[in-house]
Amino acid sequence: MGKHIRHHPLQRLSSPSRTLSLLLHTAGLASFAYSFNFLISHPNTVNDSYGWHFQYLTIIGLSLATLTVATATLADLTRSSSLFAIKNVLSVCSTPLEVLISLLYWGLRLIDPELVVPKHLEQPLPADLSFHFMPALVLVVDLLFLSPPWTITVAPAITLSGAIASAYWLWIELCYSHNGFYPYPLFALLDGSQRTVLFAASAVLMAANTVVLQWAYARVNGVLLLFPPPADHGLPSEHGKNWGDWWQLQEGQQQQQQYSDMDSPIDMILK
């Protein structure tokens, strides 16, 4: 078992914990289990094809979401800082990916449902939501309320999303060479150059999701300042409040003008 964790000052709710955190994560795992059971209990031609249902980006994302939330659940049960840290690393990949999947799926369904699901493979609404909405919801809630802020910057986010898009493109082309069909009908309607544009745009959108999620985290939880803001800082009030709460928690009710004699918040975190 890893060392028990000291929560990041911006993390809104306690996690890992055996209360709300464990409740969210076990509910997420139950939803994901329902999704995988649906694939097995409602077989179709994809079950017997090369790549099984892992031809679908949805199922790849669901698998990564399951790994992320399962790790979070174990961290809740054991109060392990190591497992919690692993969950947070996985989240940087799984959360933007699941948001991408939800945006693409529901966006394309609004245009034409048959772009993403052939008529003979239509799913009931509970299954549809469990595949294409619940993973994103669980992971976003976990990020905003039960996690420390991400530190990934734009360039690594673009690199990560580009690597995922490229790997998935190679994977579905391999599956197509064995099966003679693409998992999503949209792919068959596009030529090679159009698919290139689609995958490039998807990679950019996933990277943008990372940036937007970081922005949303700051709006919900504020940002951690190294020094007291000046009186005319002009920042939203919740930012200064977050800084002040952390400062007072660590050092009591001391005046902010004494900050030069104190440890910085970063030093406090590392202690």
Brief account:
With 271 residues, the chain is mainly alpha-helical.
Element-level helix/strand string: HHHHHHHHHH
Strand content range: under 5%
Question: End-to-end distance, in Å?
Answer: 20 Å
Mean pLDDT: 86
| Oligomerization state | single chain
Largest sheet: none
| Total domain units | 2
Helix content: 55-70%
What Rg do the Cα atoms give?
22 Å
Q: Which spans have pLDDT < 50 for at least 5 consecutive residues?
A: 238-262
Enumerate how many helices there are, as a single number.
Answer: 10
Summing up helix and strand content along with how strands pair, one would put the structural category as mainly alpha
Q: Give the strand tally.
A: 0
**What's the overall geometry?**
globular
Explain what the structure shows:
This protein is an all-alpha fold. The protein folds into 2 domains: 20-221, no CATH class; 222-271, no CATH class. The protein is built from 10 helices and no strands. The chain has helices at 20-41, 57-78, 81-111, 125-132, 134-146, 154-179, 185-189, 192-221, 237-251, 265-270. Helix 3 packs across helix 8 and helix 5 runs parallel beside helix 8. It is globular and about 50 Å long.
Features:
271 residues; 2 domains; single chain; mainly alpha; 10 helices
Write the layout of secondary structure elements.
Blueprint: H1 20-41, H2 57-78, H3 81-111, H4 125-132, H5 134-146, H6 154-179, H7 185-189, H8 192-221, H9 237-251, H10 265-270
Helix pairs in contact: 1-2, 1-5, 2-3, 3-5, 3-8, 5-8, 6-8
